[in-house]
Amino acid sequence: MIWDKAEELGRLIGQTPEYKGVRRAEASLREDQVAQGKVDLIQKLARQMDELVAQGQMPDQATAEQYETAVRDLEVSPTGQAYAVARANFEKVMIRVNQLIAQGMEKGGASSIITLG
Question: Residues 116, 87: one domain?
């Protein structure tokens, strides 16, 4: 029963305007070659920095600055801004969903009635 409810919740979330908006923004980001190049560079630099940190080293100043510049450039681009707004709107929905799930868990944990099916 719980798996059915989880699947239903996922389906309903997938139908929200916020989810559809973030999917459209992701598609636009992939179609914008300049923005996609920035995303690729950000991912490459992030992997490099993660590897250095995992080895106990700090990224050099030039790499950190290149990463920050690429992120800033993406954020100020129209496609990047549209994605950031869509992502923030979807995250607000998910925060609310998670709050309501937590409330339901609290209520369920406090209830002496067993309703598992």
Answer: yes
Task: Verify that 61 and 91 share a domain, yes or no.
Answer: no
Q: Is 103 found in the same domain as 72? A: no
How many whole angstroms separate alpha carbon 22 and alpha carbon 38? 18
- Average pLDDT of span 17-25: 98
Q: Kindly report, residue by residue over 59-76, the tens digit of the pLDDT.
A: 999 999 999 999 999 999
Residues 6 and 23 both lie in one domain: yes
Angle at 69 between CA 49 and CA 64, to 5 degrees: 25
Quote the mean pLDDT of the chain: 93
The whole domain housing 50 covers 37-76
Q: How far apart are CA 49 and CA 43, in angstroms?
A: 10
- Domains: count for the chain: 2
Cα–Cα dist 104/18, whole Å? 23
